[in-house]
């Protein structure tokens, strides 16, 4: 019996190692694909025609929807920055989702808002009640909607209903967009208007960066090691991975912090779902579902530059809450759309992208924790010896370190966003910390999040303590929560 | 197994160290290169700015005399200016580029093996607005590389020679056509000289081609094409094309557009077309459209009633009077935007 258990333990250890190797190899493949895409992008910057797009009277106008809940401290600066984006024709629709702070009052005072009667169509279902609609006296690019609290999805759905333009851009109220961000993320719709259904932009971490007049003017590594690790993680997992998926035609996640969609398609699929906490990714999966079912020829794209800058959690508690929520979202989406997984009818999405998310995203933290349990157990039971154990750990996590370093290298070659030597050094150290400590703690929260989804626990957004950007102005500390 | 692990660890350590060293080497190389380029480009950049500040009247000889390596370093700045300048300053800078042999090199590069080189050359020829390059750029409309075709369309638009119109229209009827909006913009840049070709293409079998030509006709203000566009509005078999016809008839603002648009307000026209016609009547600016629009303020379809109300608002006093006679949400919304403090907030 003991021999049987020992063989089982040893086999499990090898299985875990094989999983880690496959996982990190998949990251490397994505980074390889992303680097091809970046090289292509950089060689073509002289003839992309962005200026022509800016000057053309035919460029598709965009409705930028900004859901806001208790964003009083930063909402005016955020909206001001958005009004200065470089794009020929766009409107901003701020949806105040029943804030209990002074979000609306600040907007009203700063932009001299007046209430207007406005018929809100119900093309996309929403559950709350629209209280009033406001526009600035004498200027037309901003609309502020006040509604009862209904959550982020509900706020976005109200915004979609009120959007007057054919493209809808969803942006978080705490995001800082590069001046050309809207132009870049809307460009694929102009290049291929018949097929492009949605386009996501990259989100980078703004902590530590210098922000002046709503623009990131100096990119720096954040002061906290916890956030530095997230910078490296975002590079590998979001920038590289999503660019790689875009090249493969398998983008299933567009961040709610920055993405553009065709409004008519959003109306056809009923807007954002109210029953999942990962509403942004669910929307994209449902879009694939809908368009594949109809046999449409379409594309969902990810562009790597320019970017939306967002504040990342700077303490463990908030980070834990965020990652529980994200993983819960993945679990809910994969459960909800489970019949698409391994279903040839859904092409690359059903046969490659969703299975990948199931095996290498949803299950990864479970395997991570299994490794943390099985390795000591194997040692204790003499199924493996110490020499094997430390080499095993070093191979598994060392490969992860290599992947993170390669991501840093590609970032350096392509975008070179962190010009200081000290920042790059910190990035290298953060890559080490990501693999030895950070990932393991993250896995616990992720398992917790997935378990909450499967047990049907009520979804809670939690709170996000914002410390503000480095604006060289006093930035009050606020507590915000999006939606319910 | 342990031995295999040991070898793997050694390989990993070597690759990790190699990657780290790679980052360092890359940074150092980038710094050295950037410094060298900045030093080389400093003089030419100053000369370029002075040249542009003088509206191109003085300094062209200095720019032509710049050594090749320094000009290459300053080329991104020069190209940026070339794309942005208009009028005399643009013509003067073009002359500098021509003297430096840029057009000759670009025309040669149009035959390069690399798609990126062909596209860059096409972009430069467009920025130079070189009419002699039109036949070669037309040839690129059927290039194997989609990006090259896109840049060729843009360049032909920038040059604005109507002789390229029919070739561009033909390139839209392709299995992987250039973007419609881009083609529309380029065709519109060719101006009234392209009107005859565009008008004739309204009978093209491809719906996409017809829609592009309608938009281009609307943009160039081709009032002579109203009757043909009205025929498309009434008879075309593709709804999107009819919607485009309605929008562009409104844009033209010609008297002859009133009746066909008014006729499209009612069934059996599909709702999408009816809403487009209501919007176009507002763009048309003809007070004679008021009764027809007022009759649709209580339309069961949200979009039609909404567009009718907004169009009445845009038609000024007679339209506003019609809005005041009704009492529904669409009228209230439109009337609110007439208030002096909200003019411009529509």
Automatic annotation (TrEMBL), chain B:
Coiled coil (UniProt feature): none
Q: Cite the Pfam families for this sequence.
A: HEAT_2
Question: Would the keyword Transmembrane helix be found if you checked this record's keyword annotation?
Answer: yes
Q: Which Gene3D superfamilies does this chain map to?
A: Leucine-rich Repeat Variant (1.25.10.10)
Q: Which InterPro entries match?
A: ARM-like (IPR011989), ARM-type_fold (IPR016024), PBS_lyase_HEAT (IPR004155)
Listed A to Z, the keywords are: Membrane, Transmembrane, Transmembrane helix
Q: Is the keyword Membrane in the record?
A: yes
This protein is called: HEAT repeat domain-containing protein
- Where does the sequence pass through the membrane? 6-29
């Amino acid at each position: 019996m003991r021999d049987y258990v020992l063989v089982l333990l040893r086999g499990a250890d090898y299985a875990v190692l094989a999983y880690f190797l496959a996982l990190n190899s998949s990251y490397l493949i994505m980074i390889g694909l992303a680097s091809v895409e970046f090289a292509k992008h950089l060689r073509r910057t002289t003839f992309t025609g962005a200026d022509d797009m800016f000057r053309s009277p035919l460029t598709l106008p965009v409705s930028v929807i900004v859901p806001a809940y208790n964003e009083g401290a930063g909402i005016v600066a955020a909206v001001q920055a958005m009004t200065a984006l470089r794009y020929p024709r766009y409107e901003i629709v701020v949806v105040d989702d029943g804030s209990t702070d002074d979000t609306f009052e600040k907007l009203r005072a700063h932009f001299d808002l007046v209430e207007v009667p406005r018929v809100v169509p119900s093309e996309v279902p929403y559950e709350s009640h629209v209280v009033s609609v406001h526009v600035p006296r004498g200027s037309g690019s901003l609309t502020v909607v006040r509604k009862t609290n209904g959550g982020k999805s509900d706020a976005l759905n109200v915004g979609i209903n009120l959007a007057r333009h054919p493209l809808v851009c969803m942006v978080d109220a705490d995001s800082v967009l590069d001046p050309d961000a809207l132009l870049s993320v809307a460009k694929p719709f102009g290049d291929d208007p018949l097929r492009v259904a949605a386009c996501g932009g990259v989100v980078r971490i703004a902590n530590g960066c210098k922000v002046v007049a709503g623009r990131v003017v100096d990119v720096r590594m954040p002061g906290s090691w916890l956030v530095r690790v997230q910078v490296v993680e975002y590079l590998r997992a979001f920038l590289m991975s999503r660019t790689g998926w875009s090249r493969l035609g398998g983008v299933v996640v567009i961040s709610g912090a920055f993405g553009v969609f065709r409004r008519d398609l959003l109306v056809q699929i009923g807007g954002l779902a109210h029953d999942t906490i990962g509403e942004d990714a669910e929307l994209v999966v449902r879009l694939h579902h809908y368009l594949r079912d109809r046999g449409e020829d379409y594309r969902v794209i990810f562009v790597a530059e320019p970017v939306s800058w967002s504040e990342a959690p700077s303490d463990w508690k908030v980070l834990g809450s965020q990652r529980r929520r994200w993983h819960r979202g993945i679990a809910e989406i994969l459960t909800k759309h489970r019949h698409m997984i391994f279903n040839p009818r859904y092409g690359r999405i059903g046969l490659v992208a969703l299975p990948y998310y199931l095996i290498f995203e949803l299950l990864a933290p479970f395997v991570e924790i299994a490794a943390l349990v099985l390795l000591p157990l194997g040692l204790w039971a003499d199924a493996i010896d110490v020499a094997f154990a430390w080499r095993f750990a070093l191979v598994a996590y060392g490969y992860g370190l290599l992947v993170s370093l390669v991501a840093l290298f590609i970032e350096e070659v392509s975008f070179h966003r962190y010009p200081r030597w000290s920042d790059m050094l910190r990035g290298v150290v953060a890559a080490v910390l990501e693999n030895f400590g950070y990932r393991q703690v993250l896995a616990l929260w992720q398992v917790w999040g997935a378990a909450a989804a499967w047990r049907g626990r009520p979804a809670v957004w939690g709170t996000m303590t914002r410390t503000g950007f480095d604006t060289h102005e006093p930035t009050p500390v606020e507590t915000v929560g999006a939606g319910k | 197994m342990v031995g295999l692990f040991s070898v793997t660890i050694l390989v990993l350590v070597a690759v990790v160290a190699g990657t780290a060293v790679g980052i360092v080497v890359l940074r150092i190389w980038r710094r050295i290169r950037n410094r060298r380029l900045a030093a080389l480009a400093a003089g030419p950049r100053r000369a370029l700015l002075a040249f542009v500040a003088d509206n191109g009247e003085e300094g062209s000889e200095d720019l032509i005399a710049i050594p090749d390596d320094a000009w290459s370093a300053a080329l991104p700045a020069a190209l940026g200016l070339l794309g942005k300048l208009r009028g005399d300053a643009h013509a003067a800078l073009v002359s500098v580029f021509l003297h430096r042999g840029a057009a000759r090199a670009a025309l040669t590069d149009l035959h390069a093996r690399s798609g990126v080189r062909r596209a860059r050359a096409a972009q430069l020829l467009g920025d130079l607005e070189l009419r002699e390059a039109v036949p070669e750029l037309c040839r690129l409309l059927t290039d194997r590389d989609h990006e090259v075709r896109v840049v060729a369309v843009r360049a032909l638009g920038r040059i604005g020679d109507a002789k390229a119109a029919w070739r561009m229209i033909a390139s839209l009827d392709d299995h992987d056509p250039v973007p419609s909006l881009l083609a529309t913009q380029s065709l519109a840049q060719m101006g009234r000289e392209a009107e005859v070709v565009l008008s004739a293409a309204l009978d093209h079998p491809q719906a996409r081609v017809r829609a592009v030509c309608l938009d281009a006709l609307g943009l160039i203000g081709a009032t002579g094409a109203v009757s043909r566009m009205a025929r498309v509005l009434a008879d075309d078999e593709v709804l999107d094309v009819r919607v485009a016809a309605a929008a562009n008839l409104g844009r033209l603002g010609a008297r002859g557009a009133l009746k066909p648009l008014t006729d499209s307000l009612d069934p059996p026209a599909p709702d999408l077309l009816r809403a487009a016609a209501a919007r176009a009547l507002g763009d048309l600016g003809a007070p004679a459209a008021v009764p027809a629009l007022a009759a649709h303020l209580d339309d069961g379809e949200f979009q039609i009633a909404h567009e009718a109300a907004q169009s009445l608002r845009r038609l000024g006093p007679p339209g506003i009077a019609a809005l005041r006679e009704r009492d529904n949400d669409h009228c209230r919304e439109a009337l609110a935007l007439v208030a002096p403090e909200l003019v411009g907030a529509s």
